[in-house]
């Protein structure tokens, strides 16, 4: 009789827990969300993440805490997110940098394509090749000529990063042999470019724009297929180096696989609403971004297309993390 009573109590408890779980999901979010980025403070992902966090706070009245965890081109941040509960309260900002790194490094302990669920793609932006203000090269052709005569150093956000790929492609197609100097984040590389410790670096528009406007670096080329609205006088690198495959920076929000579907849909709706809000859209345009704000299915398709594109470019460039 006692066993029957216990079984009945257990069944009642299990049934009673179902609406509690659904209630927790339906009131999502009811506590702060951590948005982990694999880049340093002041980088493009950091700037975009903080802008998104501010807009989502206005929607949810819940804080989005931007957690900067730079290292190994974003791989450390992904490992951190995958160690977190799949409950919707830990997000990751996926960028092209991390996707490039998972193509370059052979000892990655996770499958980027299978370990994360898409929330939304926020937008894309080109990288900008910037040189220190004292470098005599005033355009890309002069930079190539100078690099063939003088040893030049270029910085990146780390071996295997998108900025590294930009430099390798430039060397390969321009016939130059500029030395790669890896940093933990592009902000440090930019600082040393401004300080004349480096000759040049690459960074997405949001990361380098203030330095360009202040005259502390000079923008010579963008990686997109067309000129960027914020840098109308700066040509695409492909105009000078035909075959340059236009690596782009982009920002997508993911969560660990296993996060409840209802939570992912709620997050997607909020992110899309934020991206399409006139004030936020204007803010992103001011950072040089082309906004998207995709559905989850569109984000999955975008990730698959970018994986193929990055795989092909890394193979063509023969990129190695040791280069």
Q: How would you describe the overall organization of this protein?
A:
This protein folds into two domains: 9-125 and 248-317, Bordetella uptake gene, domain 1 (D-Maltodextrin-Binding Protein, domain 2); 126-239, Periplasmic binding protein-like II (D-Maltodextrin-Binding Protein, domain 2). It has helices at residues 2-26, 44-60, 75-82, 96-104, 112-115, 140-149, 162-174, 186-194, 205-213, 261-276, 278-285, 296-317, and strands spanning 33-37, 64-68, 90-95, 116-132, 153-156, 179-182, 200-204, 217-222, 248-256, 290-291. Helix 2 (44-60) packs across helix 10 (261-276). Mean pLDDT is 88; it is low at 1-15 and 17-23. With 323 residues, the protein is α/β, with parallel strands linked by helices. Strand 5 (153-156), helix 7 and strand 6 (179-182) form a beta-alpha-beta unit.
């Amino acid at each position: 009789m006692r066993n029957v009573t216990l079984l009945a109590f257990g069944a009642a408890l299990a049934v009673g827990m179902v609406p509690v779980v659904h209630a927790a999901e339906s009131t999502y979010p009811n506590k702060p969300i951590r948005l982990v980025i694999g880049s340093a403070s002041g980088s493009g992902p950091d700037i975009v993440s903080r802008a998104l966090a501010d807009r989502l706070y206005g929607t949810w009245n819940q804080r989005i805490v931007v957690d900067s965890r730079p290292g190994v081109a974003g791989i450390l941040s992904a490992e951190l997110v995958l160690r977190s509960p799949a409950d919707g309260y830990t997000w990751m900002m996926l960028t092209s940098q991390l996707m490039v790194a998972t193509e370059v490094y052979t000892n990655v302990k996770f499958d980027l394509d299978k370990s994360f669920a898409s929330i939304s793609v926020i937008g894309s932006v080109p990288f900008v090749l910037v040189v220190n203000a004292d470098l005599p090269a005033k355009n890309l052709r002069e930079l190539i000529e100078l690099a063939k005569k003088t040893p030049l150093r270029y910085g990146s956000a780390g071996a295997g990063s998108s900025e590294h790929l930009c430099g390798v492609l430039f060397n390969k197609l321009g016939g130059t042999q500029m030395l790669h100097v890896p940093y933990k984040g592009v902000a440090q590389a930019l600082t040393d470019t401004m300080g004349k410790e480096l000759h040049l670096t690459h960074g997405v528009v949001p990361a380098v724009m203030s330095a360009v406007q202040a005259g502390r670096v000079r923008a010579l080329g963008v990686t997109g297929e067309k000129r960027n609205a914020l840098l109308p006088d700066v040509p695409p690198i492909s105009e000078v180096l035909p075959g340059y495959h236009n690596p782009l920076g982009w920002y997508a929000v993911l969560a660990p696989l296993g996060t409840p579907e209802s939570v992912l849909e709620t997050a997607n709706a909020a992110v899309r609403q934020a991206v399409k809000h006139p004030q936020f859209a204007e803010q992103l345009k001011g950072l040089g971004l082309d906004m998207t704000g995709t559905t989850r299915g569109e984000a999955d398709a975008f990730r698959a297309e970018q994986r193929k594109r990055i795989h092909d470019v890394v193979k063509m460039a023969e990129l190695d993390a040791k280069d």
